[in-house]
Design goal:
By secondary structure, the chain is an all-alpha fold. The chain has two domains: 11-65, no CATH class; 69-459, Up-down Bundle (Amino acid/polyamine transporter I). 73% of the residues lie in helices and 0% in strands. The longest helix has 32 residues, at 324-355. It has helices spanning 34-52, 56-65, 68-75, 79-92, 97-121, 125-132, 135-165, 171-187, 191-202, 207-214, 219-227, 235-248, 251-263, 271-300, 309-313, 317-320, 324-355, 369-386, 392-419, 421-424, 431-459.
Length: 463
Amino acid sequence: MTRPDETTARPDEAAVTAQHEVVEDTASPPASGEHSVTGLALRRRTAAVIRRIPGGRRTLAYIAVAGPGLVAANAGNDAAGIATYSSAGSQYIYRTLFFMLLITIALVVVQEMAIRLGIFTGKGIAALIREQFSLRLTGLALFCVLLANTGLVVSEFAGIGAAFELLGVSRYWVIPPAAVLIWGLVLFGSYRYAERIFLILSLAFFAYPIAAILGHPDWTAVGSNLVIPHFLLTKGYLLLGVALIGTTVSPYMQFYAAAGVVDRGAGPANYRNARLDAVSGAVFACVISIMIIIATGATIGGRGPLSSAKEAAEALRPVAGSGAELLFAFGLLGASALAGAVVPLSSSYAISEAVGVERSVSRRFAEAPLFLGLFTLQTALGAAVALTPVNLISLLIGTQVLQGLVTPIVLIYILILTNRREVLGRHVNGPILRVVATVVVAAISVMSLLLLGQTVLGWFGLG
């Protein structure tokens, strides 16, 4: 892919001033035909209405810069993420809150590094790994991403099936058409619109902050657990801790975020907006995650591990009453559908970047056969496996543990790349960020190694 000119704004975002005011859409292509003119006029009228609403200018400014960072971070609150956060509240009530605070810092740091690589190099992470590392190390990175993503795609379609089963519809009637729908939206150029629809659907999880309040948690205990570590030195806690890392700082999110800013044509001139998108998206996603833990801990905390999506939906009962399952199903569907597209796309970006072939959701199949072919294959495989009999909660948490084991390997690559001046020039990690990022990667690596060690010892009856 050719690198866009540095002064060119992202094609689908409006220019935003330092005062967060939306100005004329300088990056929009010239209108061609009646439909283009009508669409442009409609967008301007809509923007004018929003500006008249109190706080509307800031809202419009955020919508303008929202992009891969927000999408990637919010995709982390998918079916597997919801199951993992709900299990944390159900098993350990509020004991994982301080741990989640640390993970929030980690996600902000990692997400910013990922988009900075894409912005200032015009290349995705896989392409940079191919250029900067040996063939074997490139192969290791791609293997890790594919291994983790394959399990995730299965879990996303299982989540879609579980959402409809809460409504009394068999997953066997739902998963195949859902897979075809997601595949069609990406291949036939409507993904940008679908992306927004999925995000809107997943906003049903805004109910969790309300549920956390209406559930009347012990706010003193919440505050204490949020600022003071309450760790447990048990294998179960360590297992869930690694799963929380895997679902929050997922490798696919970083590959997608970097590739997304490149695909949209963002350059150095767009860095400020892209950084705002990445940081705010990470914080937003983690706040929702923390609220899920609080809501679940307040309503069903102490019950032990969850066994079904129906149990996880109980956390929404304070806000939705008898409609808790309906609200949970609605949010689960949106989150799973969003990640069901993002996860296989991140795999396609990674492989296509490493090989050096065309990759973009705006291309036709004949123009990007490998990119869209990989997306098609992984979508079909994920949907097919999700149709097999499997315990949903065990599958979802298991995929996140796998993510947690793979995450430190991918983060090491990102850290090395952002520290290399030949890659980023003067935009490399500064001294403070370098120390913080190194600590983040080291801490995640230690936890993953401890879990791996305990697992191996368990095979020999020593764990």
